[in-house]
UniProtKB/TrEMBL annotation:
Record-linked SUPFAM superfamilies: UDP-Glycosyltransferase/glycogen phosphorylase
Annotated source species: Candidatus Falkowbacteria bacterium RIFCSPLOWO2_02_FULL_45_21
Keywords, ordered alphabetically: Membrane, Transmembrane, Transmembrane helix
Bilayer-crossing regions: 87-108
InterPro entries in the record: Glyco_trans_1, Glyco_trans_4-like_N
Domain (Glycosyltransferase subfamily 4-like N-terminal) ranges: 15-187
Protein name according to UniProt: Glycosyl transferase family 1 domain-containing protein
A GO MF term: glycosyltransferase activity
Domain Glycosyl transferase family: 207-369
């Protein structure tokens, strides 16, 4: 059986779109065995464990600094593992600290095929935080390593056309394929989602509404977001000032902006209309989507936007901004509604359109569900990924 070595700066139980993608794809690629090198980041996590079909090797002492040690520690572990496993493919998840280890490995083992999987939702400007915003230090210490993985890759797989163009801008000369992230259709019950809630499940939804003090007359907006600048949750909060008082907002996720968003909520006296639920596991996410009316995320940037597709699969109409990879799947008035970037009034206007026009809402929901079912099923995307793996192995 052919073996693949994955380099990823973070991995489960740390949950993001990229980490979920690895789990979903590897679960469906039975022709391959997978080892994964990552930063430990939490001292309570085991140094080695098997998650699904992936052998996970966590390196470091269990703190945030582990990711900066990963290029060196990751290279050493990769060389040791390769002596036993003789990997067919080296797979770098995103251009990050782990990708530096992958590049070092590629330099030492030039015959190994390196695939770079681009998943980044942040603009590259966010990398400057590692040099305290200094352009000089960034260009000296970060950018050369960031660019090297684009130049050393034998194949780049981007989850959106936006990231394909970013790869070209960063000097990529190798073939670039677009393979988006997908949705677990069984988990999100794409086929007639609302009806799929049988009486016991419907009872759970009613109980959840009662726990959250949601009334029958309330209209619920929901966002599932890291609480960081790029997801513009502050603009979504501000939009409530332009909406009727029975419109409430559920915010799922955590992040460094939480305190700022709490303060903003109090300053706008919206405490009775906004519920912060923190990080919700994938297994429970669908329960919260079930009780919502509209999904909204007014992103400033987005690598693809898997949360939108999950909401579409769950039967929710979505509101988004026309940025990054979102434009690959959202057609204004067909599979969702676009609002303007950094414009709370525009968000509110789109919410009002959904609430006022039931026929349009139902049309958009049906179109979006069909789109996800036909184009973003993990089973189909795993086949595409296997095709790319086999193609690059044949070139070896």
């Amino acid at each position: 059986m052919r073996k693949v070595l994955i380099f990823s700066t973070a991995y489960l139980p740390f949950i993001g779109g990229a980490e979920i993608a690895v789990k979903e794809l590897t679960d469906r690629m039975g022709d391959y065995e997978f080892d994964l090198i990552t930063a430990r980041l939490d001292r309570h996590l085991p140094k080695h464990e098997k998650i699904g079909r992936v052998n996970v090797f966590r390196l470091g002492w269990g703190g945030k600094f582990d990711k900066f040690l990963l290029p060196g520690l990751g290279l050493g572990r990769a060389l040791a593992l390769n002596r036993r496993q003789n990997y067919a493919i080296i797979f770098s998840l995103m251009a990050s600290q782990a990708s530096i280890a992958a590049v070092f490995f590629k330099i030492i083992q030039p015959a190994k095929k390196l695939i770079l999987d681009l998943q980044e939702g942040d603009e590259e400007e966010h990398l400057k935080r590692y040099t305290l915003g200094s352009d000089i230090l960034y260009n000296l210490l970060i950018r050369p390593w960031h660019l090297m993985v684009f130049k050393k890759a034998d194949l780049i797989i981007a989850i959106s056309n936006y990231l394909r163009l970013r790869a070209l801008a960063n000097g990529a000369k190798c073939p670039i394929e677009v393979v988006p992230n997908g949705v677990n259709l069984e988990k999100f019950a794409i086929s007639n989602f609302k009806v799929n809630f049988n009486p016991p499940a419907g009872g759970q939804t009613l109980k959840l509404k009662q726990e959250l003090n949601i009334k029958e007359t309330d209209r619920i907006l929901i966002t599932t977001s890291r609480l960081v600048k790029k997801n513009a949750v502050d603009d979504l909060i501000k939009s409530l000032k332009y909406l009727p008082v029975n419109v409430k907002l559920l915010i799922l996720g955590h992040g460094p902006d939480r305190q700022m968003l709490d303060d903003l909520t109090r300053r706008l006296t919206l405490e009775n209309r906004i519920i912060f639920l923190g990080q919700i596991g994938q297994a429970d996410l669908v329960k919260y989507l079930a009780l919502a009316d509209i999904f909204v995320r007014p992103s400033l940037s987005e690598g693809q936007g898997i949360s939108f597709l999950e909401a579409m699969a769950a039967g929710l109409p979505v509101i988004a901004t026309p940025v990054g990879g979102i434009v690959d799947f959202l057609r204004d008035g067909q599979t969702g509604l676009f609002c303007e970037v950094k414009n709370p009034e525009s968000i509110a206007l789109k919410v009002k359109i959904y609430l006022a026009d039931k026929d349009l809402t139902e049309k958009i929901k049906a179109n979006a569900s069909e789109l996800v079912k036909n184009n973003y099923d993990w089973n189909l995307l795993a086949l595409k990924m296997k095709t790319n793996f086999e193609k690059i192995i044949l070139e070896s």
